[in-house]
Amino acid sequence: MRKFTFGTGVVLVLAAFVLGRLSAQGLATGPEPSCTMCPADFIPKEELESYEAISVAQSLTDQQVRSIDIGNANVQIALARRGVLDTPNPRSVAEHSLVTEVYYVLSGSGTNRLGPDLVDRQQRPDDDRAVRFLNGPGSNSIDIRNPQEVELEAGDVLVIPAGTGHQFTRINDHITYLMVRVDPDKVVPLMNAADSEAYISENLP
Fold first, then answer.
1. Using CA atoms, how far apart are residues 8 and 10, in angstroms rounded to an integer?
2. What are phi and psi of 26, to 5 degrees?
3. C-alpha angle 100/136/186, rounded to 5°?
4. C-alpha to C-alpha distance for 29 and 55, rounded to whole angstroms
5. 141, 147 in Cβ contact below 8 A?
6. How far apart are CA 168 and CA 18, in angstroms?
7. Helix (H) or strand (E) holding 150
């Protein structure tokens, strides 16, 4: 019977090969995903149009469309529509303590004032609709010290970090905007496509 013996050199070569393969695999895979096996979500234009129709019929400014767990955070998609505004209401400076909002203006135009230095800040109650279902704990104030002012129109994007006050001071005819809400503390309840379909069925005129 013929015997095969492996010398030290052969063993070192094999070890280097195996370690190289493992290293290459590690480089190929990279870090583990923060959301494991998470499906994508799709919101068709017709669904957003249904939300805008509900907004017009019921005078609802802000409606959540989705609230999705993406692993290290939740993300929400909302549609907001506001009508003509000549003068802002008292104590209408809004602030969301834990949720950042990104506006993408779909149609219309308006003026928004923003800033973190709020005057006479009052916490919203826990049973407030926005606190419970839209953007979590927050407050309303009467004014903003040293505000930034922006003119918004279709196609513009506005990023409002958590804790930053914001207030529409003028809206010419209307303004409709899509909101992406970043919710790292997961304070807003989840809402999936089936929930959205049920909501539309119940509220669409």
1. 5
2. -60, -40
3. 75
4. 45
5. no
6. 63
7. strand 148-153
Q: Could you give phi then psi for residue 105, rounded to 5 degrees?
A: -75, 125
> In CATH, what number does 45-203 get?
2.60.120.10
DSSP 3-state assignment of 90? coil
Kindly report the pTM of this predicted structure: 0.84
Q: How far apart are CA 134 and CA 123, in angstroms?
A: 15
Q: Which residues contact 4 (CB under 8 A, 6 or more apart)?
A: none
Rounded Cα distance between 153 and 130, Å, is 25
**Within a 10 A sphere around the Cβ of 158, how many other Cβ atoms?**
16
Q: Where exactly are the structural domains of the chain?
A: 45-203
Quote the tokens at residue 181.
């809400």
Q: For the segment 16-30, what is each residue's pLDDT rounded down to a tens digit?
A: 444 455 455 555 678
